[in-house]
């Protein structure tokens, strides 16, 4: 580094980090090697481009919490409207700032489209993440010290509803929803525990999700003491909108939250919907002014278009996602890769859960597959302890992106074959990777959107 620049950018002493120190060190070296700050900025764009080529064009992305967005959704994310500040509720008097005429149009269109897509009386569009949606629900519907029942992580629960997430931050007393080893809620055990603890809220929020949950039964069990059901449908929101999963708001759930960037296939953020006017003021208050101020109106515009896509294409798109995950699970199992849920038809969602203990465990397998351009994630499965999170036995595989690229059941069989070549036949990953890149080349168009419509028939 030149002496002059050193004056401007004194090298910082390495500090203890939770992030990987080696990765940060190499970023520091990249910056040190730049001739000027413009080059530093160019390094950022170059990394974005590398990802776009690799993950965007050369990989089979099978991460369950990811979805590719349509060209319109993507372009709206960089729209001018995203530079405008608009906090508060919709309408000229409710805002702090003047000049929000068109922002009100965009936001109210978004809200009305969300309500139609989810068949709900109320919706909120201002959540920068579903995580924040869950915090809003706990803020609105509980007080610190209240008891809630939520799903433990090894059975598919999510940190947002546990001690180490928003529920914990709200100071809630968290009691486990009991599960069977087959990943089903043990309703008898639930009834006993619920009667004992009388939870104010029961949260059904599953990151590992294969089958519908007994929402109706649970809402009836907790009704006698005024307990409410909260359905955190982060993963299943698109399936719910598309009518391919259960319909929590019609099965007793007081409120539904979800991620816009999972099966919903919109811009990563959160959505909240409900029907009961009695909780409307509390929920809206928890969003503003409690948890959101400016809320990225570009994202709101993109969300609105994704809701329209859901209304127009959701039913066929989501049905194909479910059919593909079932086909993929069957094809993996036929090749000798154990999969959970065979006795119930494998999956009613976008997910396939494989038990990869015999291949070295989830961490090992996910990294090995990634070297062959097959992107999945390690996952806790029943039998693992919550403390095994870093080296769990399972692998979670999702069918959202490959479906939106126009693939159907036949292609799921071909994808399973790539898995078998890596895990069972131990072919060199470089060879499989080259074949995955060639294979993916045929699938570069996104469907189930207004630009490209439906994919060609099988
Ligand atoms: C992914 C997930 C969340 C968090 O959603 P974000 O949109 O990533 O904030 C919350 N709950 C469950 C069950 C999830 O799987």
From TrEMBL:
Signal peptide region: none
Entry keyword annotation includes Glycoprotein: no
Listed Pfam families: SHMT (PF00464)
Keyword Ribosomal protein listed: no
Superkingdom assignment: Bacteria
Segments forming domain Serine hydroxymethyltransferase-like: 40-418
Assigned keywords, A-Z: Pyridoxal phosphate
Cofactor: pyridoxal 5'-phosphate
Protein name in UniProt: Serine hydroxymethyltransferase family protein
Annotated organism of origin: Collimonas pratensis
């Amino acid at each position: 580094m030149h002496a002059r620049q050193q004056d401007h950018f004194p090298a910082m002493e390495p500090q203890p980090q939770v992030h990987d120190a080696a990765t940060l060190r190499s970023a520091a070296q990249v910056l040190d090697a730049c001739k000027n700050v413009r080059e530093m900025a160019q390094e950022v764009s170059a990394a974005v481009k590398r990802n776009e080529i690799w993950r965007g064009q050369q990989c089979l992305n099978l991460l369950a919490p990811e979805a590719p967005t349509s060209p319109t959704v993507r372009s709206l994310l960089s729209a001018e409207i995203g530079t405008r500040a608009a906090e508060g509720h919709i309408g000229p008097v409710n805002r702090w700032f003047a000049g929000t005429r068109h922002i009100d149009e965009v936001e109210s269109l978004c809200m009305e489209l969300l309500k139609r897509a989810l068949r709900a009386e109320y919706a909120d569009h201002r959540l920068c993440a579903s995580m924040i949606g869950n915090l809003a629900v706990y803020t609105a519907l509980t007080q610190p010290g209240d008891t809630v029942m939520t799903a433990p992580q090894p059975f598919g629960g999510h940190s947002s509803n546990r001690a180490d997430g928003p529920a914990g931050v709200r100071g809630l007393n968290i009691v486990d929803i009991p599960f069977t080893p087959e990943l089903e809620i043990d309703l008898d055990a639930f009834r006993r525990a619920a009667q004992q603890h009388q939870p104010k809220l029961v949260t059904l929020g599953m990151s590992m999700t294969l089958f519908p949950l007994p929402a109706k039964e649970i809402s009836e069990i907790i009704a006698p003491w005024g307990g409410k059901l909260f359905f955190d449908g982060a993963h299943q929101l698109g399936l719910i909108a598309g009518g391919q999963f259960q319909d929590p708001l019609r099965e007793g759930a007081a409120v539904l939250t979800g991620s816009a960037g999972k099966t919903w296939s919109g811009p990563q953020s959160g959505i909240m919907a409900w029907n009961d006017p009695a909780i409307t003021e509390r929920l809206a208050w928890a969003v503003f002014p409690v948890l959101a101020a400016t809320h990225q109106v570009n994202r709101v515009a993109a969300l609105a278009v994704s809701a329209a896509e859901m209304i127009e294409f959701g039913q066929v798109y989501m049905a194909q996602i479910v059919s593909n995950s079932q086909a993929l699970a069957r094809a993996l199992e036929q090749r000798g890769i154990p999969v959970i849920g065979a006795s119930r038809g494998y999956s009613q969602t976008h997910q396939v859960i494989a038990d990869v203990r015999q291949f070295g465990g989830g961490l090992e397998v996910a990294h090995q597959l990634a070297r062959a351009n097959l992107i999945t994630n390690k996952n806790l499965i029943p039998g693992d302890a919550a403390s095994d999170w870093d080296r769990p036995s399972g692998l979670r595989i999702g069918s959202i992106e490959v479906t939106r690229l126009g693939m159907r059941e036949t292609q799921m069989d071909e994808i399973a074959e790539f898995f078998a070549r890596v895990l069972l036949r131990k072919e060199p990953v470089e060879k499989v990777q080259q074949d995955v890149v060639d294979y993916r080349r045929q699938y570069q168009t996104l469907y189930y959107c207004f630009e490209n419509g439906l994919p060609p028939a099988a």
